[in-house]
Protein: 3-dehydroquinate synthase
Amino acid sequence: MITLNVDLGDRSYPIHIGSGLFADPSLLAPHIRGTQAVIVTNETVGPLYAAQVEAAIGSLGKKVSTVTLPDGESFKHWETLNRIFDALLRQGADRKTTLVALGGGVVGDMTGFAAACYMRGVPFIQIPTTLLSQVDSSVGGKTGINHPLGKNMIGAFHQPQAVIADIDTLKTLPPRELAAGMAEVIKHGAIADADYFAWIEENIGALNACDPELMALAVKRSCEIKANVVAQDEREQGLRATLNFGHTFGHAIEAGMGYGEWLHGEAVGCGMVMAASLSERLGFIDVETRARLAALVRAAQLPVVAPDLGEARYIELMKVDKKAEAGSIKFILLRKLGEAFVTTVPDADLHATLQRAVIHPPAEPDVA
Amino acid sequence: MITLNVDLGDRSYPIHIGSGLFADPSLLAPHIRGTQAVIVTNETVGPLYAAQVEAAIGSLGKKVSTVTLPDGESFKHWETLNRIFDALLRQGADRKTTLVALGGGVVGDMTGFAAACYMRGVPFIQIPTTLLSQVDSSVGGKTGINHPLGKNMIGAFHQPQAVIADIDTLKTLPPRELAAGMAEVIKHGAIADADYFAWIEENIGALNACDPELMALAVKRSCEIKANVVAQDEREQGLRATLNFGHTFGHAIEAGMGYGEWLHGEAVGCGMVMAASLSERLGFIDVETRARLAALVRAAQLPVVAPDLGEARYIELMKVDKKAEAGSIKFILLRKLGEAFVTTVPDADLHATLQRAVIHPPAEPDVA
Structure:
């Protein structure tokens, strides 16, 4: 087991990464200080793992129960969140009750938001069971739900007590979900560590096959990068926004196609190719860098051609992005491989990028 | 104008108290840093004041719009909150948009919670227009909505940028609402300042008549007491819980009767009499102190006889109070006039208190 620390003063917490961890009572014990815990999971993950987590918490002498939500991004809204509140109140959950998020990013975001709001804040533990949530969404305290008019529009910053990333849970992950997680892994290399990016390129075959040793290394390095960024900028005043590389376009794809149609990671993968294309068009990166990124996204079995929502719809959707200010859309671009920055862009370049993105990206420079 | 400061480090903010303040652009200007503001009000307060606040914000060169909610505690739930989110998204509100809560406690709590959650947090200003919200709910950053199973169960701590308490707005307040606010004024004297309590006793007639000078003094002293408690214990780890004097019983009355049937302040007034009765029964205060409190609550035109919900229902409702831990109910009792503390109580004393509370409280000691 590797343990990293997210350094946030009195809100600091450990990330445990390894095998055989998710139902280890010794990892849960320090973080369940009241008399009960409530596990929140979904109907896919629950049948696989919830009984073991319940048993582990029960062995600590704590009262425990499980809430099972429907599975998928399309359920990440108020009505589902309210099922958590209903369960907490029916169980007599008090201010010291610990919530345990057992599942992927949707379960983690909703459980975290429920923990942020229930009685104005209770503790919670993240047990991410997908690659995407292990390398990205479980770390950093961003929680929330979607609104019909925008993704993650309603939420809170609420840090977990601990993150327990068990590589074993990735074995049962469908290939499409694994690929979606790889999008965030590639993102970490692209925005923060060119060597890591090269390592992913070299090992993409074994990573696609979910090689446990390589996957543990990827989870560790991605969590390090994320934890480092979050420690420097918890509330996204600056640096943290670079973690949204690919997300401005990606969120528009997800919302435009209807939540759940494209997986978040698929939209981010394609969104990164679009952002790299825009970076090239504006002269920040060369054609080789863009081509490397597109090739790696493709090698990770992720889409590189954007859905044709129409330019106007893309722009409308991107304007409700949380990074937008006074109606002007902010983009995360690459200055080089391993370094990203936040900027606005000229309308003409954005239009050209959107036009090109819906066509299979050619190898030549993206300056048409 | 008097200006107090709520001392919370980088979350500190001013409370301005006086006449002719609510539409003063110079008070609003420092707190609207983005390009737009959205006023949230209700259908009672909006027609009286919203146009003036809109004009004041407009005069600062900011885009401004107004969301009007239905009036009353019975609407303090998710569906109404979501009307604020809908409006913000339709207006293209970004992370720098300032929300302005123009109304009483319900508007303030919901607007504050919307500000806490919209894009994971935007700034907001409180312009409380009821006595209750001026002396209590607008100060301290508690925000939230009700759940059918419990009051204020879903919420956040989110401090405003400023509180603008304009005494002029109390002139249009119905007498019942004014009395409800007096409950919190009396509470502040009872838990923190015996001299203030005596001053309220002396001036209750003029306060009931909403004498502007006396009312300004009451708002000032109550805000001082509240600000002082909040500065010491923002997240209610200890001392702040004493501000809930009368609220354990009061919340049960509100929920048991159906939200909106009893005003919050009416339930708190009656709840304080019940808590004083329990304090006397347990030997902390003498019969004279209990009688003074009951007499002042009655003099403020507030109910002193509890509704007969049945003991079992009271206890069921009190167990979902946020202060409860592991099913045991916490009460705020008086040690003496001007000093309160948090405790659990023996079941027998609670039962006896509930039995006596539904009968007009007699003058003799409460130890039957």
